[in-house]
Design a protein that fits this description.
- This protein is of the alpha/beta class and 303 residues long.
- It has 9 helices and 9 strands.
- The strands form 2 sheets. The chain has a 7-stranded parallel beta sheet, sandwiched between helices. A two-stranded antiparallel ribbon has the order 5-9.
């Protein structure tokens, strides 16, 4: 088995595992010995991921699930427990992101759609897995949020609402479970090269993304594994957005000014957020274009 085997024989459930960060994280856990459970809506896509993983780790299970459907999530959790008898790690990663200004005619509908998947998909997943972890007296819940879950961006108001709610839930959950043996980590990636946002016109993109080089899904996957292994409460990937979060905490004016400066190539380069590639150009692995979204895929794009 390759890797350090930090998760040897641990049962790891990953939602949104068919692509992007979920796909990369599934491979990362499997390489370190985990019994990996792949969850997403598309059986066909999940079976492709299972075939990839099975080449070096046969302990992989596919459970097609729409995480916005509470009954399906309950059935998924029961199937995993029937198969393995326990769940050691839950990574709630499935999500949806849509771009649009607050005065867009679809803003309310789009925001509801995102909340159904991003927030309630997370709530349902945690609710159904938590009793098993409580019975075990151990476990780790890694919850995917976003940088915009701490600081909203223009034209990403609906997604920011959803991600702020996810972040708030994770903060409350972590404190409620303190001393129980169950750990909680919140992951806040910046713009990531995933297939989540694939069709929007460049003109519709939030201006702060104009000169950002998307980070690789493998970097986020590595951060997730390290957060679980070392019990990190909050992880920001890469490190630069911490400055934005600090500026916004000190003063909303400073936070807004930081966001206004991000579309400037020189400023983005100085803080290490632009390295000669943007979401329009794709990147070394995968297509980093971002778009109007659609369907439940793993969440990223604007994180």
């Amino acid at each position: 088995m390759k890797g350090k085997d930090r998760f040897s024989d641990k049962v790891v459930v990953i939602t949104g595992a068919s692509s992007g960060i979920g796909h990369a994280t599934a491979h990362a856990f499997a390489r370190e010995g985990a019994k990996t459970v792949l969850v997403s809506r598309s059986r066909e896509k999940l079976e492709r991921v299972r075939a990839e993983i099975a080449g070096y780790n046969p302990n992989v299970m596919v459970v097609p699930t729409n995480v916005s459907n509470e009954e399906e999530v309950r059935e998924m959790a029961n199937r995993v427990l029937d198969e393995f008898g326990r769940i050691d790690v839950l990574f709630t990663n499935a999500g949806k992101a849509l771009v649009g200004a607050v005065d867009n005619r679809n803003f309310i509908k789009d925001t509801r759609d995102m909340i159904d998947v991003d927030l309630f998909g997370t709530l349902f997943s945690v609710k159904e897995v938590l009793p098993a972890m409580q019975k075990q007296g151990s476990g780790h819940i890694a919850i995917m949020s976003s940088v915009v879950g701490k600081k909203a961006f223009p034209k990403f108001g609906g997604y920011s609402i959803s991600m702020h709610a996810v972040s708030a839930f994770a903060d409350a959950l972590r404190q409620e479970l303190d001393g129980s043996g169950i750990r909680v980590s919140t992951i806040h990636p910046a713009l990531t090269q995933t297939p989540l946002l694939t069709s929007v016109d460049t003109a519709d993109m939030p201006p702060p993304f104009r000169y950002m080089t998307p980070i690789k899904v493998e970097a986020v996957a590595k951060a997730v594994l390290n957060a679980v292994a070392t019990n990190r409460r909050r992880v920001v990937v890469p490190s630069q957005p911490r400055v934005l979060m600090l500026a916004d905490a000190v003063s909303p004016w400073l936070g807004d000014m930081f966001v206004k400066l991000l579309p400037n190539k020189t400023f983005a380069s100085l803080i290490g957020m632009y390295r000669g590639r943007t979401y329009e150009h794709g990147a070394e692995t995968g297509d980093a274009k971002v778009g109007r979204g659609g369907g439940e895929v793993e969440r990223a794009g604007a994180r």
